[in-house]
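Sequence, C-alpha cells passed on for absentees:
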Amino acid sequence: MRISGAPAAVGERPRAQASGLVATVKSWWIAYLTRRVARVAIMQLHAMSERELKDIGLTRSQIERAVKGEFNHWPFIRHD
C-alpha cells in the first residue's frame, strides 16, 4: 500500500501495468475464442438439412440468434 505523497516502491508501477496488460490480453483472447466457437456452431447448423433443424426446433433464419443466446422459444411452446 502506498501512502499519499510517498514515492512508489521500485517495480510497483511496471508490475501493475503488466497485470493490466495481461488482463486485457486475456479478455481479448476469451472474446476471440468465443467468436470462433460461435462461428463453428453457426457453420455446423447451416450445414444441417431443414428436417434436422426442424427436429431441434430451429429454422435457418433463427440460427445466428440461437447461437448467440438471443433466441427465445417461449412463444412456441405449448402449455397443455
About this structure: The two ends are 63 Å apart (CA to CA). Residues 38 and 44 are 10 Å apart (CA to CA).
